[in-house]
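tl;dr need the bound structure. longer version: we got a ligand (thiamine diphosphate) that a collaborator sent over and nobodys looked at where it sits. i said id run it. heres the input, straight from their email, havent touched it
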Amino acid sequence: MATTKTDPKAAALSEREAKKAGKTYEGLSRDQLIEAYRHMYTSRRVDDREILLKRQQKIFFQISGAGHEAVGVAAAFALKPGYDWFFPYYRDRALCLALGATAYDMLLQAVGSADDPSSGGRQMPSHWSHPHLNIVTGSSPTGTEILHAVGCAEVGRYLAAHPHAAEKATGDYRQFKDVKFHGDEITYVSLGDGTTSEGEFWESLNTAANARLPLVFVVEDNGYAISVPVEVQTAGGNISRLVSGFPNFHFEEVDGTDPVASYAAFVRSVGYCRAGHGPAFVHAHVIRPYSHSLSDDERLYRPDVERQRDAQRDPITRMQMFLIREGILDEKGINQLEKQVDDALQADTERALRAPAPTPDTVTKYIYSPDLDPASPAFDTQPVHAKADTAGADGKKAGPKTMADLITATLRDEMRRDERIVIFGEDVADCSREQYLKQKLVKGKGGVFKLTSGLQCDFGSDRVFNSPIAEANIVGRATGMATRGLKPVVEIQFFDYIWPAMMQLRNELPLIRWRSYNGFSAPCVIRVAIGGYLTGGAIYHSQCGESIFTHIPGLRVVFPSNALDAAGLLRTAIRCDDPVLFLEHKRLYRETYGRAPYPGPDYMVPFGKAKVVQPGTDLSVITYGAVVPRALQAVQKLEREHGVKAELIDLRSLNPFDWDTIAASVQKTSRALVAYEDSLSWGYGAEIAARIADQMFEHLDAPVRRVAAMDVYVAYHPDLENAILPQTADLFQAMKELSDY
Ligand SMILES: Cc1ncc(C[n+]2csc(CCOP(=O)(O)OP(=O)(O)O)c2C)c(N)n1
Ligand SMILES: [Mg+2]
């Protein structure tokens, strides 16, 4: 048997190396560190490649993740892809790569290809969306995603308490909305230092702290928001100091250009969140070596000396030096790794440049659900009335009920039917201090208009609860929840106060499906008390403004005028697969006009189907909401006094709207009056009037008329309110003039 003599010096060396090979760095193995570098380097090289392509005019925009690579990879390594949930911002290229997105995916978005998995060529590069990795579609407005992340984090907890809610169901939106969750899942959300100035950031911290949500906030602080330095954005120049008073948080402040230190910070944060203690806040100091975007030249506002100082901390070169110093990779090994990445990237680039462009005929695809059309006959059902002497859905005796009663009854029946429904908003709970209810010390409130009264008592405080007075918080959280498959039916207390939620309502909720090319969707219901004729409502409790929302593609807007339609349309809104703005006229809540018995637990009115309230042959009156009963009085008076038969059409839903019924009526009568409560100019009726003028011109015997509010705010004194809002007499006069024309 041959023997070999061992050299004691060589043995000692290999033992040291073997020991070194097993060495970990805050728990990261040497192989993981090589992997981390591969992702970091890939990220930087994709940025470099995109910049080149932009200069060659082969792509149309570029924003880089340069300088943010280490913190991103560290976060991805500490969290679980496809298990935890991610709301990254545009600098998180390295995070997304480390979670499983590919460089090719990213290049497809840069060229705007139809094959771009994030958006089908609709979004700028670096707007990540990968359903299979739980990377949720992001947008460009700074900070809006943070509230979605809050809503997302709430879902895991809700479903853990209501596991049946996650089950598949057929016959409504649930058929197309699969739900997955893990009891110990975590949500990740990131933002820049400048974005901490947005109110929605603070709203998110507040709710996350209060509800102890398993949510990791990551502020990637590169010291600038475009050209504005951090000390101008943030009082005192350090966000960690400002947020340190929020309760229930675990805080970390770390050098985000160091992957090992960052990983350690994330491991501690993730441990805290997974254990259910509450949210974590990771403040990572990073650099931004490539200006804000390719549209920005930072030399205009940053001197060389400052930029050179940053360059010393570049995470790519730091990591290279670290790998060499620790003997994890030598120079040759690094070169080999980089060559592999570069070669693959070259092939990916060539492939992406050949990928098909999207075709213009696809632009309207996925504005709304491709699976469930709320205007379809499936949503057209007949009322089933309880006998007059039996109890209705609210437990009270059946018989004609107000719009308020039927909305409450519909909410109750739908909550019973669908455990995914949660209701929240300002004052909607019966009593947040539920011990008062349990001890029967109080009766409970249930909304300033009492429409959600009793629902918390019936369904529990995790299904019906109060929100802070923060309308963006309400809509943003609802969006996040709906994206995961819950069905939030939230309330905005007064239309007049919907504006803090406008960014969410214009740029987020209705766009989730379209911008992610159907990768995500957010069907939910926003109930809003709207309108005037209140006597004393004044400026800030009387506004309309529906046309601002019908102008938003992707958002359904309905506006019932009576109890039966309200019940039917609300049920359709809840069961459908699109986001719906459900406008409830305050004056109609308890009006005698339009009361009806409860139409049963399956009564639905399809969207986009108007109701002919009164048939007629001489002129068409097209309206909706609280103008319907006023117009009806005028129509009846016109027939009584002048024998003129006007046809009164209640649109009921404003987007979609029932053009066929309008067209058929105007074809018959040749005269059209469009009436609405909002101020006249640029109001909803302007669009209807324009379409009639455009498409029915040959059928008209008179100009299209409009009656609406004056172009002014609704004033307090009843004499002023009456003068400002359209009244029966105004409608009558316009109808008379039109029929005489
Ligand atoms: C609501 C909103 N306002 C303005 C912009 C334009 N904008 C895009 S990024 C940006 C600066 C963001 O800075 P920061 O949060 O520090 O992130 P960074 O880009 O530095 O990573 C601004 C002002 C925007 N996208 N959204
Ligand atoms: Mg910044």
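gonna send this back to them w/ a short note. Residues 548 and 684 are 8 Å apart (CA to CA).
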